[in-house]
Structures are given as structure tokens and as C-alpha cells.
Design goal:
The chain is of the alpha+beta class. The chain has a single domain, classed as RutC-like (60s Ribosomal Protein L30, Chain: A), CATH 3.30.1330.40. The chain is about 25% helix and about 30% strand. The protein has two helices and six strands; from the N terminus they run βββαβαββ. The strands form two sheets. Strands 3-6-4-5 form a four-stranded mixed sheet. A two-stranded antiparallel ribbon has the order 1-2. Helix 2 links the parallel strand 4 and strand 5. The longest helix is centred in the middle third of the chain and has 18 residues. It is globular. It starts with a strand and ends with a strand. This is Enamine deaminase RidA (YjgF/YER057c/UK114 family). One of its GO terms (cellular component) is cytosol. Pfam families: Ribonuc_L-PSP. Belongs to the RutC family. One of its GO terms (molecular function) is deaminase activity.
Length: about 140
Amino acid sequence: MAITLVNPSGLPEIDVYRQVSIATGSKLVFIAGQVAWDAEGVTVGAGDLAAQVEQCYLNIGAALAGVGASFDDVAKLTVYVVGWTPDKMPLLLEGVTRAAAKLGVTPVPPATLLGVAALDVPDHLVEVEATAILD
């Protein structure tokens, strides 16, 4: 595995992600922002942030599997949420938890969460992109 996740002393420990990833692999994998589309391009969970987060993470999982990788290889996630406010955190975490259970993983690489005004399609509430490292 090319990724080691750590929480260095002096930084807060966050349950849902690690502060730092150390990459030792030689192949970078950049996954385009994934939205709540199923394989046919139909939006999953219109109006439901948790359902859309879940679908985004499942799509990241599928993209990773398509290149012979898994969430263990993810060095960094970036999450974009339309109209973000802190009260949406439980829904975001619910979606991540449901996807993790389906994927059989605990996705905790460093992550950045950004509130945005809009995404590509008005029904999309969240977009997730990933960077992975392979040996």
C-alpha cells in the first residue's frame, strides 16, 4: 500500500479523517469530481444530501476499482457541498457511513470540505473528487 494516514501530534484528531497522508507510490490517480449519478447518468437521491453523498462515494469506489485501486490508496478527498452549513454535517457523515458499509471500507484520508453556490446540475447537492497513489 502506497498510503500511510497519520494524525501528527499538535494537530486535532478528527474522527472522520486523518490530517496527513504519506504517499510512497509512483503512480498518481486523479478521479474527477463524482456527483450522485448512477451508471445510467440518472441522479440518485434528489433533495437528499445523505443519499447523494453515498452515491458519490460509491462512484469513487467504482472509479478506484476500475484502475485496480481502493480507498486504501486514496491520499486526498475534496468534497463540495451546495449551500454548506455546519448543520448539514450529520447528513454528510450518514452518507459516508452508508457508502463505507457497502464498500467494506473506512474512508478516512485527509479531506477538504468546501461550500459552493452550485454544481453542474441543479439537483446535485454534493461532488467528491479523489487523488490516489499506486505502487
